[in-house]
Design goal:
globular; TIM Barrel; alpha/beta; 8 helices; 381 residues; 8-stranded parallel β-barrel; single chain
Length: 381
């Protein structure tokens, strides 16, 4: 039996309210009586780092990624969804797969077996919301027969306008669905690095999406390509697939991993300052590590077949939490850990933290804490 359809107007959740206040305050859009002027005691000057608010710290979007991987387009995702709220999760990112034959295909399309049906996507959103979870919808393009070294970040169609026209068709369909179902956040794309230079086409597409979806928009840039995206100002949040290479060691220490994450955190802060993006908080749409030796070196490599290593996965998550705990919402609006899919357990090489020591690190990160905000570098003038 399908869950009932929610009202078209999405109710404001606490997380969305916090995000809206942060965005509006930084953009100067909050009512004068609600925001003190710059120069008042405790109010930071433009371009400076916003201090953490007094009291316990808690991330506005505490998320888990749930890729809709099932080969059955009618698959029921109720069980993994129900497992999320007890972990401290309040947002879930649903990854909906689009497909094209290879990197040179003219356009992506929904796959009859590998793309979930509209009914399943709608039912999953409704079940999530009934559990108190806000939903982010993330369309991702996959290749059915990739050549060696090819992936969605290296697509090169015969015609970019034709490819975007096909992608537009699929994205607008999902945008209308997202609007109907009260989705909280929509990504216009994920890790499409070779498309990032097509700025005019992206801006036109984003404008079309806004005509269909009234909520905030982001794009999930690949970890090594976010500085080359030229259309961040057309979006509401700076999104990232954060598979940064932290260490080449097979058995890295937590302190070394934390130092690596701190460098990446500071680089992101400087980037946003230099590009005038301080009014657009960061959302990490994918942070994940497989349970395999060497995971800190190439966390993006889902094909890794080394020995199972639960400890290196746990250390990577502990290091992430140490680097980001206490970050103000103006800097970090949320994070989605990848992924809540698969059985997990102590023999599993995959990304899921289910049944693994890494899960305790994530639960600790989501819990309220009085930890001070992490230090930030001063943006270069």
């Amino acid at each position: 039996m399908s869950p009932p359809a929610p009202a078209r107007l999405r109710p404001p959740t606490a997380a969305l309210a916090a995000l809206a206040v942060a965005l509006a305050a930084l953009a100067g859009g909050v009512a004068a009586q609600d925001v003190a002027p710059v120069g008042s005691p405790g109010v930071a000057a433009p371009g400076s780092v916003t201090p953490a608010a007094a009291g316990p710290w808690r991330l506005p979007m505490r998320g888990m990624a749930l890729p809709m991987h099932a080969l059955d387009p009618a698959h029921d995702y109720a069980t993994p969804l129900a497992e999320l709220p007890p972990l401290g999760v309040d947002h879930v990112a649903l990854f909906v797969h689009l497909w094209q034959r290879d990197a040179r295909s003219p356009e992506p399309r929904r796959h009859p077996l590998r793309t979930p049906s509209d009914r399943v996507v709608r039912d999953t959103i409704r079940r999530a919301r009934a559990l108190g979870l806000a939903v982010a919808l993330v369309p991702t393009v996959h290749l059915e027969r990739p050549a060696p070294e090819d992936w969605r970040g290296s697509i090169r169609p015969p015609s970019w306008p034709a490819w975007f026209q096909g992608y537009r068709r699929e994205l607008l369909h999902l945008a209308r669905l997202a609007e109907d179902e009260g989705v909280a956040l929509l990504a216009v794309g994920s890790e499409l690095s070779s498309t990032d230079a097509q700025e005019a086409l992206w801006r036109a597409l984003i404008a079309d999406v806004r005509a269909e979806f009234s909520g905030p928009l982001t794009y999930s840039a690949n970890w090594d390509h976010y500085q080359r995206v030229g259309f961040w100002d057309a979006l509401d949040l700076v999104g990232l697939s954060a598979y940064f290479e932290l260490s080449r060691a097979d058995d890295p220490a937590v302190d070394d991993l934390r130092a690596a994450w701190t460098r990446e955190r500071d680089a992101l802060a400087v980037f946003r300052a230099r590009r005038g993006l301080l009014g657009q908080p960061l959302v990490l749409l994918e942070v994940g590590y497989p349970s395999v030796a060497g995971a800190a070196s190439k966390p993006w490599d889902y094909t890794a077949q080394g020995p199972v290593d639960l400890e290196v996965q746990r250390r990577c998550y502990e290091a992430f939490a140490a680097a980001w705990r206490g970050a103000p919402p103006a800097d970090l609006a949320g994070v989605f850990f990848y992924e809540w899919w698969g059985e997990g357990g102590r023999r599993d090489r995959g990304y899921t933290p289910r049944g693994k020591p890494a899960l305790d690190a994530l639960k600790g990160f989501f819990a309220p804490t009085s930890s001070p905000a992490p230090s930030r570098p001063s943006p270069a003038r």
